[in-house]
Recover the amino acids of this structure.
């Protein structure tokens, strides 16, 4: 198995069990392992907005069913799940988000492990910030689940860098496991500065967060990397925040590099993320084995210094 801290493509499983049935999800998972993929990314709230119950858990259950149907596969994959954003009351979100109280951090992991059919996860994320709970209480609770072996590592998703650093300082002072990973929204196309995105709770990568993870040697994961097919389907509308001249300039740069590299636009974007500074683990969801094959082939795309400079220079 690859080094669990090295950047690699993670398979996003958000819609497994809701929009994607067992017959659709299992072949994707099988192929992912066949291609040497390791990281499976899920969350306890996936995908409550697509589930008739109004609650999450379907994605984790689907992964658990797949693991049960394939004995020995658990040793070949790494599982990333999250806590904090599942609704406590169906139809009431974000008002009734479970949050990050210590009892929630502990209890949600127990339920996630039951759904997954495993005794540990390899990375347990605080899915969102919860400023109603003292940070030292959150730090202690996350440290406890690492200490008891139910989580191998912990990370912070959609958190401000200063909150992550404060939590890490508290963890060090308390002698418990600190956050070693950060998860944020990132893609090559960028919205205008300070834009409101339609996806509630998304926190964008910034130059400051890139500098932070570099200086602290933290793993950086990125979601919404391919913008729901925007690179493969340029006619597909993007959120209004992307309606600015830089979007077309960056589209043109990706297309030019793709032609030169003999790759697809999706592959160029993923190669740009994987080979950047810091290198980023992109989370990618797919709806077919063919899409997965395209995505995983991005690992073999090597951007030249000139190609990367071109991509980085376009604003």
């Amino acid at each position: 198995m690859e080094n669990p801290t090295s950047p690699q493509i993670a398979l996003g499983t958000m819609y497994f069990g809701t929009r994607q049935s067992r017959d659709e999800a299992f072949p994707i998972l099988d192929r992912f392992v066949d291609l040497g993929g390791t990281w499976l990314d899920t969350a306890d709230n996936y995908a409550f907005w697509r589930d008739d119950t109004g609650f999450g858990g379907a994605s984790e259950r689907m992964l658990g069913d797949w693991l049960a149907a394939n004995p020995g596969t658990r040793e070949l994959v790494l599982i990333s799940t999250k806590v904090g954003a599942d609704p406590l009351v169906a139809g009431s979100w974000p008002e009734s988000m479970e949050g990050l109280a210590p009892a929630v951090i502990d209890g949600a992991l127990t339920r996630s492990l039951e759904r997954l059919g495993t005794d540990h996860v390899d990375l347990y994320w605080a899915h969102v910030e919860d400023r109603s709970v003292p940070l030292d209480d959150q730090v202690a609770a996350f440290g406890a689940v690492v200490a008891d072996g139910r989580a191998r590592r912990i990370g912070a998703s959609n958190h401000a860098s200063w909150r992550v650093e404060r939590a890490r300082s508290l963890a060090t002072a308390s002698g418990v496991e600190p956050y070693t990973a950060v998860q944020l929204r990132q893609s090559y196309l960028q919205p205008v500065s300070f834009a409101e995105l339609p996806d509630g709770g998304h926190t964008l990568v910034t130059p400051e967060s890139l500098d932070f993870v570099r200086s602290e040697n933290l793993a950086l994961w990125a979601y919404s990397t391919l913008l729901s097919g925007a690179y493969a389907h340029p006619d597909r509308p993007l959120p209004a925040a992307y309606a600015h001249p830089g979007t077309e300039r960056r589209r043109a740069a990706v297309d030019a590099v793709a032609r030169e590299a003999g790759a697809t636009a999706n592959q160029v974007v993923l190669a740009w993320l994987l080979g950047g500074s810091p290198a980023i683990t992109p989370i990618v969801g797919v709806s077919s084995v063919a899409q997965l094959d395209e995505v995983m082939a991005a690992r073999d795309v090597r951007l030249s210094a000139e190609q990367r400079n071109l991509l980085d220079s376009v604003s």
